[in-house]
Write a structure and sequence with these properties.
Layout lengths: L2 H14 L6 H12 L9 H19 L1 H16 L8 H33 L2 H19 L13 H13 L7 H11 L4 H29 L8 H27 L4 H20 L2
Length: 279
């Protein structure tokens, strides 16, 4: 594990996990182009866990007020006497939290197959997935902005988002892109679509952090030399993710997603070329 590889993974993870451009697809390209270390073996699992932690920090810093409010709402409801009525605002926040959890349930299934999918998918297939992801991005920015907010979201909406995010674990597809696409198709407003997407992403990345950390500890791969790369990874992925999310939020609110269309087309072409060169 070389330091430049750690830096590459950390910055790319902080950016790609929060944009509709697929972190898994980029990792597959790096592995094939540079023969970089695997994030599913040895110390790589700690690096993967630290990327997830950095992404969690980035989302919390950008949506700190909303994240704190939702957390306080859940704790407050847990302590509240069942005889006392729940204030309307708290009830609405609790409802959004509950729908976020329902959306997260199908995504839990993805952890059972995540390793096989990310390690066995070929680069040429990932190139095709990048093209599919381009269609999703186009759908995110196409049409008119919806008007549905917290109060109008249903259980069907949440389950659809969770299902499509579960399918988006294929390298080349983006779970953020899938979530935003379904939100647009279901008539969410841009503001709520972003907030709900990153609320679910926060829950997923936090769960993924503990999942990869557990796998790493189970395999006994930690060494003192791993500590510095882990700290570097958390810091870089958090900083990169923070500024990425701020900029993407600005672009999405204005429906300026054309750059990501071109980016995914270019990524598909590069992935296809690398797969040909590697035979």
């Amino acid at each position: 594990m070389k330091l430049w590889e750690v830096i590459l993974y950390a910055i790319t993870g902080g950016i790609a996990e929060l944009l509709p451009i697929s972190f898994g697809g980029h990792v597959l390209m790096f592995r094939n182009a540079f023969r970089s270390f695997s994030l599913w073996e040895g110390e790589g699992l700690y690096i993967r866990a630290c990327i997830c932690l950095g992404v969690v920090i980035a989302i919390y810093l950008v949506y700190h007020r909303q994240s704190r409010d939702h957390g306080i709402t859940l704790r407050g409801l847990g302590r509240r006497s069942p005889r006392r009525p729940i204030p309307g605002e708290q009830r609405l926040k609790f409802r959004v939290n509950l729908l976020g959890i329902f959306a997260f349930v199908p995504m839990l299934v993805s952890f059972a197959v995540l390793s096989k999918v990310e390690t066995r998918v070929s680069l040429s297939f990932a190139a095709f997935a990048f093209i599919v992801n381009t269609v999703l991005i186009y759908a995110c920015g196409g049409g008119h902005e919806g008007q549905r907010e917290d109060r109008e979201v249903t259980l069907v909406d949440a389950l659809l988002i969770g299902l499509f995010r579960m399918l988006a674990i294929v390298p080349g597809l983006s779970s953020v892109g899938a979530s935003l696409c379904i939100g647009r198709a279901r008539g969410f407003s841009n503001r709520f679509n972003l907030r709900f997407t990153y609320l679910i992403t926060l829950i997923y990345e936090l769960t993924a952090f503990f999942y990869f950390l557990f796998l790493a500890m189970l395999r006994g791969s930690f060494a003192i030399s791993t500590l510095l790369p882990c700290v570097v990874t958390v810091m870089l992925s958090a900083v990169a993710g923070y500024f990425t999310l701020l900029y993407f939020r600005h672009l999405f609110m204005k429906n300026h997603l054309r750059f990501f269309l071109y980016y995914c087309i270019d990524a598909a072409a590069i992935a296809f070329i690398i797969s040909i060169l590697n035979g």
